[in-house]
Amino acid sequence: MKKQAILMMLIVVLMASCTADPVELTKCVSEKPVGFWMGLWHGLIAPITFIISLFTDSIEMYAVNNNGGWYNFGFVLGAGILFRGSSKAGREYRRKRSHSA
Fold this sequence. Notes:
There is one protein chain. By secondary structure, this protein is mainly alpha-helical. It is 70% helix and 0% strand. The protein has helices at 2-17, 25-30, 36-44, 46-55, 69-82, 85-100.
């Protein structure tokens, strides 16, 4: 259990260190829009960037300059991977329900 806690703390620190640097909005919009892979990354680090964004106005958890559907798909997929998706929750619910019957 202690090793798992240390590993989790290490992952949190690593992910927090990878949040995007603040960028002026005009520079962000003038650059090439980000796509699927950045959406996936932003979905993975979303909880960390959300917490940081509560304390600073210079960090956002969602890229304003994105290419639309593919970025959104990557973001949702990244967040789903992080939280192990809904399939595990469904299996756990069915397992508990079958044992209580």
